[in-house]
Design goal:
The protein has no helices and 32 strands. The protein has strands at residues 27-28, 35-37, 41-42, 51-55, 58-63, 68-71, 74-77, 81-86, 91-96, 109-114, 117-122, 128-133, 138-144, 157-167, 170-179, 189-196, 206-209, 213-220, 223-230, 233-239, 247-251, 259-262, 269-275, 284-290, 317-318, 324-328, 331-341, 348-358, 370-375, 387-392, 397-402, 407-414. The chain is an all-beta fold and 416 residues long. The chain is globular and about 60 Å long. The chain has a domain at 1-48 and 311-416. Helices cover 0% and strands 47% of the residues. Strand 18 (213-220) and strand 19 form a beta hairpin. Keywords: Signal.
Length: 416
């Protein structure tokens, strides 16, 4: 759902030339770059961004609330401040809902588009569904997608984690369940189900794993791909359009969390992960397209997924643990950061990266990305846990970079 440039640009390495890098501007590391960014603008006093979504012609950001409960002597904050930004990243309004959306809940939420605006679904310890209009105002009351289970129950399966994605007339939800109380020996089953926007099941819940953690979902064009961790490894469930049931398989990500991603609007799917550097692999951001059965699409003669690195030209060690990637018009755009030297002779520091990859019949690792490496003004450091979200419109994009202290917005333009 984003805009990409589909021609190949020669990408200069970190030892190549770049634009002038004065202390007052964001500096980029490509000559005649096809991706350009503005200087960042601080967005109000928002801090602790955890998610954001393009809703119509503006942006809705979810960030840390001022409301908290004390857990083990430390504050645990609700993530329920909803703020509306215009399409340039300027703050228009902000409402702190505190614990009014879910009493005492400090877990994450899934944000997904809906016909009336957007929905939020609890990502942990529950399946409450909330509706909001396009201006981030609540619509109606919460609906539980699965019956809540009392904390004292020992015979019912309680929802633990959710991953979700919108497709067509509703959204897919992959949910782990376990018996209570939770112990270090608890096993979690994983079910995949499609719901309409009112919370009614459109498919029966399919059991796709009996030992799963951390589900994530991508969906498009009637196809859905779920990824999760199982027994220390990664697993996928690919449910192609028109198939009677999903195809389930393991995938060798070297023990890293798989992040499913829709590569186009027709149901072509892929999976990304943060690979570990080894004696035979450079690691970094890695990824493959998958076929209709969920099998990785690899270069001819290759079977080792640890060679499917996408971030070779990023020139540094990938920093953010979660990968922000979006597809539109035949390509995929990834935002992230690395720790490395911006140019030869520079001290090691934080470098932000925007990288666009064409998607076709060839493996993702065979694509030469259109790439921009850049730094904050004055080579300032990112916060300890940066979060990136790309908000892509028809004529431009806004990159949101958030941490515990602030939220910054960059306007991004791609050459045509």
């Amino acid at each position: 759902m984003r805009v990409f440039l589909l021609f190949v640009l020669l990408v200069l390495s970190a030892c190549g030339g770049g634009s002038n890098s004065s202390s007052g501007t964001a500096a980029g590391s490509t000559a005649a770059a096809s991706i350009t960014v503005s200087d960042p603008v601080t967005v109000g006093s928002l801090a602790g961004m955890t998610d954001a979504l393009v809703v119509g012609d503006h942006i809705v950001v979810r960030s840390r609330s001022d409301s908290f409960v004390t857990v083990n002597g430390q504050p645990a904050y609700a993530g329920t401040r909803l703020s509306v930004l215009d399409k340039q990243g300027k703050l228009l309004s902000s409402t702190d809902y505190g614990f009014s959306l879910a009493a005492g809940y400090t877990g994450e939420w899934l944000m997904m588009l809906s016909p009336d605006g957007f929905i939020m679904v609890q990502a942990t310890k529950g399946t409450a569904l909330l509706h909001f209009d396009a201006q981030a105002r609540p619509l109606g009351s919460a609906t539980d997608l699965y019956p809540p289970v009392a904390a004292t129950s020992t015979t019912e399966y309680a929802a633990a984690e959710n991953g979700g994605a919108v497709d067509g007339n509703g959204f897919w939800l992959a949910t782990t369940f376990s018996l209570l109380p939770v112990t270090d020996k608890t096993q979690y089953v994983l079910k995949l189900c499609k719901f309409d926007f009112s919370g009614r099941q459109l498919t029966p819940p399919f059991m796709i794993s009996t030992s799963a953690l951390h589900p994530h979902v991508a969906a498009a064009g009637g196809a859905v791909l779920a990824g999760w961790m199982e027994g220390g490894g990664a697993a996928l469930a690919m449910w192609a359009k028109g198939a009677g049931a999903p195809t389930i398989r393991s995938i060798n990500t070297g023990g890293s969390q798989p992040y499913p991603v829709a590569l186009n609007t027709s149901g072509k799917m892929g999976v990304l992960w943060n690979g570990k550097a080894t004696t035979t692999s450079s690691g970094g951001v890695m990824g493959v397209a998958v076929d209709s059965n969920g099998a990785p699409v690899l270069p001819s003669g290759r079977t080792d997924l640890t060679q499917e690195t996408l971030s070779t030209a990023w020139n540094g060690n990938a920093r953010a643990s979660e990968i922000d990637a979006h597809a539109f018009s035949g390509g995929i755009a990834i935002a992230g950061s690395v720790v490395g030297a911006f140019k030869t002779g520079d001290p090691v520091g934080d470098v932000l990266v925007l990288a666009d990859y064409a998607v076709g019949s060839e493996p993702l690792s065979a694509q030469s990305p259109t790439l921009l490496r850049f730094t904050l003004p004055g080579r300032a450091a990112l916060g300890p846990a940066p979060v990136f979200r790309q908000m892509l419109f028809a004529d431009h994009a806004v990159l949101l970079s958030g941490d515990d202290n602030r939220l910054q917005a960059f306007n991004v333009n791609r050459g045509r």
